[in-house]
Design goal:
The protein is mainly α and 128 residues long. The chain is built from six helices and two strands. Helix 4 (78-91) crosses helix 6. It is globular.
């Protein structure tokens, strides 16, 4: 079996050329997202904003562009987001906070974790 990196290198260009065939792009389009190509890294990305860079810290002039910006109606601290996040799982009897932290223990990349927390914060603020 080929290693993940080799598989990704082989198939990403195929998927990028015809995203409608391999991804649920209709959902993104219905929600107002538009597919763009990053002018720096040349990778495709989806955004509701008219932008020409993907938002990865390596491509952005200002690092992570979402840090410090209010994205929802109710502003939550990092700790508040974690508490609400864990309560959502506890209500559904899925996981407790300690289990979530154990799962995320190996994830140390902010470019994965922080957007997820920001998205969760937005979802919570829209529920109110």
């Amino acid at each position: 079996m080929l290693p993940d990196k080799v598989i990704k290198k082989k198939y990403k260009p195929i998927f990028w050329k015809n995203p409608d065939k391999y991804y649920a792009t209709s959902v993104l389009k219905e929600e107002g997202f538009k597919r763009n190509i990053c002018k720096v890294c040349k990778k495709p990305f989806w955004s509701v904003n008219n932008q020409n860079v993907c938002g990865d810290s390596a491509c952005s002039e200002n690092g992570f562009s979402f840090i410090g910006k209010k994205i929802g109606k109710k502003e939550l601290s990092y700790v508040d987001v974690w508490k609400k996040f864990s309560k959502m799982f506890e209500k559904k009897d899925i996981l407790q906070l300690k289990d979530i932290l154990q799962l995320l223990d190996g994830i140390q990349q902010w470019n994965i974790l922080m957007p997820l927390l920001q998205l969760f914060n937005l979802i919570l603020s829209l529920e109110k």
